[in-house]
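The data are quoted verbatim for completeness:
=====
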Amino acid sequence: MIWLKKNQIKITYITVLVVLGVTSFVATAINKPTPIVSEPLGVIEVACKDNITKSIEQRIQECPILSNAKEKANLKGVEIARVVQLQKYIRPDYDIEIVEIKAIEGGVEVFARAWNKNGSQIGFGKDGSVDMERFRIYNPPILVDDLNGTIIREWTDDITNKIMKRTLREDPNEALLQVLEHNLSVMKNIRSGENIVVGKRGNTTSTFYPDADVESTSVDGYVARVNQTSWAAAREPLGGTDAPDNTTLLFVDAEEEFAENFTISRVFVLFDTSAITDEDTISSATLSLWPTTGEGADRNCVIANATPASDTGLVVGDYDALTINTPTEFTTARIDYSTIGAYTNATLNSDGLTNISKTGVSKFSVRHQDDVDNNQPTVGRQYAQFSSSDTAGTTQDPKLVVEHSGAAEVGVGTFYWGEE
């Protein structure tokens, strides 16, 4: 708020002369100020969330009005639509042209064309006739990794107890392009371009991230049962010992770290997918996690159901909020998370597609296969860690990409989970 103070000057004579666009003022005045006004003549106040002199990340952290995840997502959508340029971008794996962009409730909507690196345009949809696909990204990321970045995330590693650091920069334009490029790499309804109808647009393309802490609709985290003296005790449905849902990393393991010391950790990832309309048909979906580190030769995991007590937080009682023995698996093959530093993509089977909710929250668990199969591991470390959802959203956050369509065409939706 700025209080404007006023000294009045009595003007007795003013001459205004305009010559060739130059205005000069000649004034004779009596310098007789009136007393300073005690009341404001005007108020200039910029709402915290609209103060573009601050970064988006700063406003998310500092503005009281952005107290819930939905408001944060709305702000990101508005700012991405404001700064992203409508042009063609040459990318490492695909070339992408942003044709239109606008803010929507909870995120941003983009119409885009894409080309393979051989120069051929991609045709979208079941017959490849769509020229411009519509991508909707809910709770979109705005941060990208950068060794010289000024945004720093620090945490204590659960395994080594060392202080870890991640440096990022705020770059909504680059973040959007990374999201789109990864979507293209996992989409199933993309074709060669010979059937493209110029100007034809795809149907809904949705992209969602789960909420950051404090959550509004969805959560990611893990529930662990640690330091048990037997494998049976570690696996018993008696609740966990830890249930972190606001950490920097997700942790899945099934191990006997040393003799008679067993730990099992189960990951829960939830996405608010209610933006998919009831009438749409889901044709494919891909759950993507970003492994950051791990140990052991076996890092194969099972993706299955989850039924935590709350959609917005985890408790130790959620340890057995899933099918412990012989769960219905949501992928045709088990997923190996040995490759670190990139997304590992899990294509969901028909059971996994059925698990996606069109009216609420889609819930998934990720468990080590030894936990699922009740197979006691040999002594040694056996775990995988993944990036969790970040306060402002990064391009390594967990992600669900869903291709869905109405009666006319197939679209693609992407769903992310957020953290604090």
